[in-house]
Amino acid sequence: MARVLVYAEARDGELRPVASEAVTAGGDLAEQLGGSVDVFLLGPPGMAQRAADLGRYGADRIFVAEDPAFSSYAADAGVRFCEYLVGREAYDAVIFPASAQGKDLAPRTAARLDRGLATEVVSVGVDGGRPVATRPMFAGKAVATVAFAELPALISVRPNVFRPRERPADGSVQVVEIASEPAAQRVTGIETGDREALDVSEANIVVSGGRGMKDPENWSVLEDLVEALGDDATLGASRAVVDAGWRPHSEQVGQTGKVVSPSLYFAVGISGAIQHLAGMRTAKTIVAINRDADAPIFSVADYGLVGDLFEVVPALAAELRRVRAGG
Fold this sequence. Notes:
This protein has about 325 residues and is α/β, with parallel strands linked by helices. About 25% of the residues lie in helices and about 25% in strands.
């Protein structure tokens, strides 16, 4: 029987939203292959109990390695864990989220297993009984269907593309001993910004600002819109404002920043350079606000507002609050 293995990301002993997305992607592929889904993850003692929830999204078996050292991301242990499972079972594919962790772990694993890796995948399928993956290329100008010469096929899936879908499975949990050996590279700490916010690559709604904001002090205009949109929204930024030091790199959307696929993307005061478009053109709905009617961003926008953002955005935030309040 065909099997698909999925890496479920956890941080500080809690499952990340991308975990259920990756399991959903694994379920989609396993369904087409006529097989089952196994999941592996690392975490501190007690992680196994929380990991059982992944059975809701189609995980038949869940392998968990527990150790206090796994409270933080442990790359070497993750690779050894995956290598152990692949050596024990015949897997057709191994799926990772294309998150910060996944972008580090997937290529390490590919090198160890000597297998090809398809990154930033937006759909999975089967051709001739073998896995295939679809991914954007050339800054999103083309879409390629990738086949794999050898199995298991290694795939990293773009966050916010495979919406979590419940397909209850056994979800049996097995704790596996993976030694927390001293690593050549280890995480010593994680620094977060002053404002607790969703990661821009995981948020369902992203409000990004560009040079048109004129000054970093004006970001309160976008923060007000994010607040009006609710808990699913977060801030993003173009490369130009990040390079200028206006916003942190963690918010950068684009080819050299983060690739996002939210349900709703606001591009405010962003002209639409190809570098930025490469990072957000797969958003489900794009709203552009710019005073330049000829700005390239309007070529990819579903809705465009030509006007002064300092008038449009506050009015939009006020209207959203009125609607949400039932006014």
